[in-house]
Design a protein that fits this description.
Strand order of the largest sheet: 2-3-1-4-5-6
Largest sheet: 6 strands, mixed
Number of helices: 14
Order of helices and strands: EHEEHEHEEHEHEHEHEHHEHEEHEHHH
Helix content: 25-40%
Structural class: alpha/beta
Shape: elongated
């Protein structure tokens, strides 16, 4: 894959960390073979994370993130811990550079603790091997190098490459809960916000997955569902609906037919269904004056009765009967400090890549702010979330009884 043909989101992200003057930027330059980071005799030259997409052999396309040097004080401090976690939420492999003439200090120990807490594969690099005689611990996470002489830089690259190989099993959207020759009915309102003449991406992907499972996809608008179910002559194995018409579809779908939504299927597909179902339950705890962030992944033109800016705030107000402060964010804007929010309601994220969506979920988790998505919040407020996650019993078990 060529350098320019691989989007940054799909590249392995390697984050370099370390105290000032540990030689972190020199190690970055030695590993990448190019002057990516500023190297200076003055401590702490790198002030903001520097990101650069590049080819790194033996790995291929990567993004190198060189972070600001950490001060020599005894602990990272709350703000720096938050910043570090945010960088780690976008990082596949963490590289911690330590000055071998000084050794590990409390700050490095704290960083290693954060890597472990976030389950990030990491390597501790003892730099300046040429200036120090003592032996480093014989441990799989450790390696000694010299950025100056090039000692073990190739071995470090190979170590990073091994850490970066993670083969996650690819989930299906719906294929694992249906059988060949099943009928699946998809309820798709023709959305004013959808591009003219096209279905939105999650609907296309779901239809494709049904067809690949050798099942039959029947697509109807919400007003045709009842008649379609009566005329089919065979009970569908599943009805999948757009969340905006959840209440009507639930009323029109007999109780013995399993029902779910695109939002629920995609939250599961992206590995965050449990998080967003738990987040929806936080709607119950909202009080007067609480701040709620409604966050959209794309910046499409707002309709007059847009779901994020109009419908969800209205439903929230009607459901909670509380005076809430609603804030909106869209596109790439996502606040760094989420601590003032009692709840985040995010769109389904079909226009965000998986890394960015996971990043947002992890940032909310780090700051203990419940996060849910549009479809799950709507189903919860309409009293049909339990029904719509019945196809996933382990998730159902987490919901309070209605």
């Amino acid at each position: 894959m060529g350098l320019n043909s691989t989007p940054s989101a799909d590249r392995v992200h390697i984050g370099f960390f370390g105290r000032r003057n540990a030689g972190k930027s020199s190690v970055v330059n030695a590993v990448t073979g190019q002057e990516l980071a500023v190297v200076s005799e003055v401590k702490g030259t790198t002030t903001d994370p520097v990101q650069k997409a590049m080819e790194l052999l033996p790995m291929g396309p990567v993004v190198i993130i060189d972070t600001p040097g950490i001060d020599d004080e005894g602990s990272l401090g709350e703000l720096r811990v938050r910043k570090t976690k945010q960088i780690l939420n976008k990082t596949d492999v963490a590289v911690l550079v330590v000055d071998k003439t000084v050794g590990m200090t409390a700050v490095e120990e704290e960083l290693v603790g954060i890597f472990q807490e976030k389950k990030i594969p990491y390597v501790v690099v003892y730099n300046k091997q040429d200036l120090s005689e003592y032996s480093i611990p014989n441990e799989e996470h450790y390696i000694e190098v010299s950025a100056k002489t090039g000692f073990q830089i190739e071995a470090l690259k190979e170590k990073i490459a091994r850490l970066a190989v993670t083969e996650e099993p690819k989930l299906k959207i719906v294929g694992d809960i249906i059988k060949p020759s099943d009928f699946v009915v998809l309820v798709v309102p023709i959305d004013k916000a959808a591009p003219k003449g096209r279905l939105i991406l999650p609907q296309q992907q779901t239809i494709r997955d049904i067809l690949e499972s050798d099942a039959t996809a029947i697509v109807v608008k919400e007003f045709e569902l009842r008649e379609t179910l009566e005329q089919l002559g065979k009970k569908p194995s599943l009805v999948i609906t757009d969340s905006q018409v959840f209440a009507k579809v639930s009323a029109d779908t007999p109780r013995d037919i399993p029902l779910t939504s695109f939002s629920i299927l995609f939250a599961r597909y992206k590995g965050n269904l449990q998080t967003v179902v738990q987040g929806a339950a936080a709607i119950e705890t909202l009080q007067d004056g609480d701040k709620v962030l409604i966050s959209e992944g794309c910046t499409h033109h707002r309709q007059c009765d847009d779901i994020g800016s109009v419908k969800i705030p209205r439903w929230l107000k009607n459901y909670t009967r509380k005076e809430l402060q609603i804030e909106l964010s869209s596109g790439t804007e996502f606040p760094e400090d989420l601590s003032s929010y009692k709840l985040i309601i995010h769109c389904g994220g079909c226009m965000l890549n998986e890394r960015e969506m996971k990043y947002r979920l992890k940032c909310a988790g780090d700051q203990n702010v419940p996060i849910t998505n549009y479809g799950i919040a709507i189903a919860y407020m309409q009293g049909i979330l339990r029904r719509s996650v019945e196809v996933f019993p382990h998730i159902l078990a987490e919901l309070p009884e209605e």
